[in-house]
């Protein structure tokens, strides 16, 4: 498997290059050079396979030439000791794909843990220390911090927008210590992302350090996210209906991963791109015009992205054809009032407690099913455990939300972060002092 840049499809790089360097020098994004096809028999025999087994089988198709099977098997089983169960709300019609059973209680564990496994596999072979820089709107940081904590040969710096992540999210970023360092940025997520992008383009930093990213711009975060779409398909195949996935989206890595496995042969009937008030992609799907905007703050803060970094990948997967993409993906968006009302209705109708992001996915799916009246098996992705947004969920639903033990223990640990402004030189100085 090799990778090309969305800005230049003639030059190819290796797995290791794309893994450790994240971004091509031409400022494009890496994409797999070939997308292997898995036959229908594969998707029909995985109904009872674990996420780890599915991850192994798909990885083998992708990386057989680069990584021995035994190492891939160990890596996937170490990365995925948890399941991604499909929970029916209305049998055969509306289900939730729960992606929050990993250590940080959000779907980003899947990508972060697989990527950490790959990096530690390759660094065992004697590479220099790697410095990972990651911008987070909330959940990426926690998943990356926990996925990479104590991984030898890797140091992680996390940039997060001050005051714009939940208390427990902040604890996940700032309390592990060791090889994990948090920078608290006086700005928005887009500012954090811009600082990271600038660091990758800074020649002096790159000359001194081996910089890498764990954001969803790294293709190895995105590829494993396809595994749970496959797992979910296996769990609902018994209904023998067209399968529709609804993905609550911000940077659009999660949705791109679904489209990628669809291109590998997964029989997905349709995708829903569901967003909050940051709705540049739903707007594009309606009008054909793509107009990135500054992000606005919402209660579903992990999706507060005004210029989604994976938009280019998404359109690339459809050969930049608006006709094609708008045929396969429908976009819906919901403001905070609609999200709150949706959380309430989902709780009243199904007894299901959802985080605001998950509620947006469910609302998008319901809107699609109502509008088209089609007899589909709808699967909405639950991207985070409701307890990650405990105060909000309790305020909206008036019920108590239990915090799983693995998150609860963080509440008493002390926050350690380095405050910085949005100025790149300021960040650069502070960062260099930590290395
Ligand atoms: C990151 C995140 C999203 C958005 O995922 P993208 O891949 O950036 O589109 C949605 N929900 C939650 C809870 C998240 O943490």
Describe this structure in words.
With 435 residues, the chain is an alpha/beta fold. The chain has a domain at 83-106 and 221-397: 3-Layer(aba) Sandwich (Rossmann fold). It contains 19 helices and 14 strands. The protein has a six-stranded mixed beta sheet, sandwiched between helices. A five-stranded parallel beta sheet has the order 9-6-7-8-14, with helices on both faces. Strands 2-1-3 form a three-stranded antiparallel beta sheet. Helix 11 (253-263) links the parallel strand 10 and strand 11 (268-275). The longest helix has 18 residues, at 219-236. Pyridoxal-5'-phosphate is lined by residues 106, 108, 138-139, 216, 248-254, 302-303, 357, 383-384. The site of pyridoxal-5'-phosphate has 17 residues, from helix 11.
Which fold name is given in CATH as the topology of the domain at 83-106 and 221-397? Rossmann fold
Helix content: 40-55%
Small-molecule binders: pyridoxal-5'-phosphate
> Strand order of the main beta sheet, please?
4-5-13-10-11-12
The shape, in one word, is globular
What's the rounded overall pLDDT mean? 93
Radius of gyration: 20 Å
Distance between the termini: 33 Å
Total number of strands: 14
Q: Approximately what portion of the residues adopt beta-strand conformation? A: 15-25%
CATH architecture of the domain at 83-106 and 221-397: 3-Layer(aba) Sandwich
Largest sheet: 6 strands, mixed
User: Quaternary arrangement of the chains shown?
Assistant: single chain
Category from helices, strands and their pairing:
alpha/beta
